[in-house]
Amino acid sequence: MYTIKKIDYRVATLFVQERHYSPVMPKLTKHYLGAYLEDELVGVLTLGWGTRPMHTIAKLFPELGTSDYYEIGKMCMDEDQPRNSESQLLSQTIKWMKKNTPERKYLFTWADGIVGKAGYVYQSANFLYGGFIWSDIYVTEKGEKVHPRTMGKYIKGARPTFEERVNMRIDSVFGKQFRYIYPLTKKDRKYLKTHSTVEWGLDYPKDKDLRWKIKPAGCSSYTLSDDIPFVYDGTSVDYNSRNVNKVKDKWGSATLEEFLL
User: Fold this and answer.
1) How far apart are CA 10 and CA 182, in angstroms?
2) What are the tens digits of pLDDT across the range 209-245?
3) How far apart are CA 69 and CA 54, in angstroms?
4) Which fold has domain 3-134+177-208+241-260?
5) FRET partner for 49 with CA separation of 20 to 30 A, picked from 104, 177, 178, 202?
6) pTM, whole model, 2 decimals?
7) Over the stretch 181-198, which tens digit does the pLDDT of each residue have?
8) Structural domain boundaries of the chain?
């Protein structure tokens, strides 16, 4: 059984960036939680909001606000932990929220279908599924995922032109993002059934439901594919370097082990 403790954001950042498929840390994070097995940090989960907190909750519950929910920003475990470790982390996090943030009604998250994640860990933890949206990213020739907001810092307009994508060798990719939610009380579960704009249930997506719309650099139209169109080895951070290197730039080259001493 894991013990959940609040940890320093630098420790959480280094832990995540050494293990997670995406090293970019969410900016609107309220709580950095560490999962401990005895005295060893073996997992990290962050609670906060996405890039548009009020928009997210208003789309799901028009009468609620940002104070009514938290969104999972990052979640990862050591590879040597058992297969169901993430489900246990979620279970312990829910218990932590009920004790430490009782005003929150829901724990919300997205499963990153755009990188091939259908959300099996949330399904195992009995989250409710609320459908999907199509979300877009840009992908470099090295496989680095770049959010449109980040890409806007490197071009003149809001979106790269055809010529810019060719010169930068950047593909445009759409993929599915799957909604999951966990009501923290029976009252909140009942409210969800009668007041949410989304139909929530247990008809979970599987790998067969993953799809991608791909517009490679040099092409002017999208094609639909059942195969993920990029591979990322975790080493290229050309466009996301400001976020990824934030802790290192401010605090030097200290390792996770040094922060934990």
Assistant:
1) 28
2) 999 999 999 999 999 999 998 876 656 666 665 555 5
3) 10
4) Aminopeptidase (3.40.630)
5) 202
6) 0.87
7) 999 999 999 999 999 999
8) 3-134+177-208+241-260
